[in-house]
Amino acid sequence: MADLTSTFVGIKSPNPFWLASAPPTDKEYNVRRAFEAGWGGVVWKTLGEDGPPVVNVNGPRYGAIHGPDRRLLGLNNIELITDRPLDVNLREIKAVKRDYPDRALVVSLMVPCEEEPWKRILPLVEETGADGVELNFGCPHGMAERGMGSAVGQVPEYIEMVTRWVKQNTRMPVIVKLTPNITDIRRPAEAAKRGGADAVSLINTINSITSVDLDNFAPEPTIDGWGAHGGYCGPAVKPIALNMVAEIARHPETADLPISGIGGVTTWRDAAEFIALGAGNVQVCTAVMTYGFKIVQEMISGLSQYMDEKGISSVDEIVGRAVPKVRDWNDLNLNYVTKAVIDQDKCIKCARCHIACEDTSHQAIAMSDDRVFTVKDEECVACNLCVNVCPVDGCITMRKLEIGETDPRTGEVVREYANWTTHPNNPSARAAQ
Amino acid sequence: MPSDPFTPGVAAGRLSADRIAANFADLHPPLDDHQAAVESDRCYFCYDAPCTQACPTSIDIPLFIRQISTGTPEAAALTIFSQNILGGMCARVCPTETLCEEACVRHEAEGKPVEIGRLQRHATDRLMARNSHPFQRAAKTGKHVAVVGAGPAGLACAHRLAMKGHDVTIYEAREKGGGLNEYGIAAYKAPGSFAQDELDWVLGIGGIRIEFGRRLSGDLTLDDLRATHDAVFLGMGLGGVNALTVEGSERNHVEDAVDWIARLRQSADKTDIPVGRDVVVIGGGMTAIDAAVQARLLGALNVTIAYRRDKAAMAASEFEQNLATSKGVRIIYNAAPREITDTGVVFVRTRSEGGKLVETGETFEIAADQVLRAIGQTLAGQPEVLALEGRKIAVDEHGRTSLAGVWAGGDCASGGDDLTVTAVAEGRDAAEDIHAALGA
Ligand SMILES: Cc1cc2nc3c(=O)[nH]c(=O)nc-3n(C[C@H](O)[C@H](O)[C@H](O)COP(=O)(O)OP(=O)(O)OC[C@H]3O[C@@H](n4cnc5c(N)ncnc54)[C@H](O)[C@@H]3O)c2cc1C
Ligand SMILES: Cc1cc2nc3c(=O)[nH]c(=O)nc-3n(C[C@H](O)[C@H](O)[C@H](O)COP(=O)(O)O)c2cc1C
Ligand code: SF4
Ligand code: SF4
Ligand code: SF4
After folding, report:
1. What is the ipTM of this complex?
2. Which of A10, A64, A258, B92 sits in a 20 to 30 Å window from B256, CA-based?
């Protein structure tokens, strides 16, 4: 069977599946259960500085977006960092690490943006035997207003400065957790690297309001009539996170910076996708908050099966394998021509493809009186919309036209690779020879 | 002249070969990939799942369904087989409506449970199609265990023992293995050669030898087995049948349903299996239902199940009863047989009074040119030394009999329902206990 063991910034774990810093890792009880269930590592729920802990709201913390059948697709939270005393957390971290030496245990930290508080907390964490620290520069609510979390994460100079302080004051590996609430994710990643970070992790949650109570005209979750924006996570944020991970992985300045991929990871496949786009491991929060710790068993069996079938013997062989394929639009082959093809045996005749194309696209799917749907190759621009709206997986596929075939839509013969930079319609096109 | 459903008497080939083949096709056809994707999406991944609790082999149902939904049906199959090596057969024959699917929370929520049985089949078919055995044996222990009977209990026990590194010899009285999977289960539940294919696949683990035509209390004695093996497991099922003590029950057109079914199961295309025009099946369990339904599928014109007690008392589930009636079988309740004549069966009507069955004295006759007895199987050929509990070999929760070094499980042993899946669970658990006892 495939070997799932993982080494991330020198931290070993039996598999690349870690729990993200959040309620699932808030205390010893949870973390022990997580390790028993098979999780490879955890990032402990973010600790703040010593003193009276933060307080959470005592009404609802979460709002959600559901798909059909109430499948939870997105979760929004207004929870803060840990609301338990520092010494209790440290004691528990030490006890858990002692009992599970083979698992990764990283401690998430968020203290005020001054060097002293960092100097104070780091030795305390080191003393627990924890494997590393993660700097929470991502929390978008509550802590940001106090000048921490994403208030730091949105200013690259602060990231660099704090990271440098931390590196100077500890021997532990330092992972900088990034906020997605920023225009260009490469800037904070560069800053973390300049500050000496061993890795970045991303994404933290995205500013969000999930819904509005239309009787009381207040955002949900509503606390005594009012609501505040929260942080969005879960399957819905995965595409955003994947892109951000890929951007950092293919950016020359940060290409060698290890990444811990976070955001919507729910199945083995999600994890493999993050890893292929450059993540060294993944962290999970919403999926376990929805289904419990046991889902790691599916991740383990699924990734093992995938690796066995592909003849891949270690997770490292997958890391970053898709990165070279992530390109700018300008690089894409404009002579790659495909046409939608409908498998009439699979078609259940719902007409979704037809109406999507007819009303909103290129009028390329004909519908007969007896509900037979046929792609008009002379109209189909291969946009893929029909594939995406068809309820039957694999019913509509894309057929690639071979070089030399004529595209019935343009009447042109399909040629070798050529992109926009050489296209005649491009005013600044370089002359094609 | 070829026979048809109206031909009087007992005759083979009442329907064309094509018609018979179509009639005996899969009762629950396999889910295709799309159906499996849609169905697996319905599972809520319940914690401490009620479906798993209701499965006698405790298959981790939410996990295997999740593995299907994430595109790894082979991993799903491993989850199933690690608990139940006959998960393929169980997916076909389990009365899921009274087991996992009855317990499914979506049955509670909307009356439509997740189709666990068919999902299980989807996964197990996929892995078994690879034709390689998914488990490896532990290092050899040098211990040798005798298993009596190659039915579900014996096979599950032998497989688990082989996996633990023990060598196993199965002594099987018949000329084929599989037990009732091969000779008893309704043909439309396990069509084709699935029982034999599954048997071969299970044996793929290695370390299991079957000696056919060897019978305990025939050419073998328990003492011999104990002397030559480190432990003995009895999975001999129920070899006998309850006697029907009514006048005429020795007549030529009267037969035990299990024997008739066994012949049917061994026939390749079933056109050679004679069946009456007017068939009466006496009994109220799964065997009665299976015999009656298969008689109809072969082309019998009138098939009646006559049961002594009322509908609620019937051992066959509501689903099974509905299946029978949907195939045109008539079920008559509260009818006890009094006499079998050359042309029919005379019944006396009954009713229950304070939990006791009393005959009303009122009689009626149903025409019959074939009568099938399905009033229950009994233990037969078990070694005298073993203590019984009721009419079965007494075992404790580990499957230990009253005699040291001898375990038993499946239909022949006390406790549990007489189901394939229960036999598998008991065989497997006994193997675990044997392994512990052998201290290897
Ligand atoms: C007609 C019928 C239909 C059924 N349908 C279903 C169904 O749909 N679903 C379901 O879950 N269950 C069904 N059952 C019940 C199920 O088949 C049994 O519970 C199950 O097969 C029991 O397994 P077993 O291994 O204990 O016994 P068996 O399957 O009976 O196997 C016992 C084996 O031991 C051998 N043997 C017997 N005596 C000796 C001896 N003295 N020496 C050596 N070998 C011996 C036999 O030849 C046989 O191979 C049905 C039963 C019948 C009769
Ligand atoms: C209730 C809740 C609390 C969270 N608290 C923290 C936190 O204290 N520190 C932190 O770094 N991230 C925190 N997060 C963010 C998660 O660690 C993670 O980055 C985010 O949820 C995206 O992953 P997911 O889609 O798997 O949930 C929290 C998330 C949730 C839902
Ligand atoms: S999940 Fe538990 S703690 Fe949260 S609201 Fe429900 S019962 Fe209360
Ligand atoms: S959307 Fe798919 S299923 Fe529906 S009509 Fe089009 S091809 Fe057929
Ligand atoms: S009870 Fe039903 S919904 Fe729940 S885990 Fe079992 S099959 Fe899935």
Report:
1. 0.89
2. B92
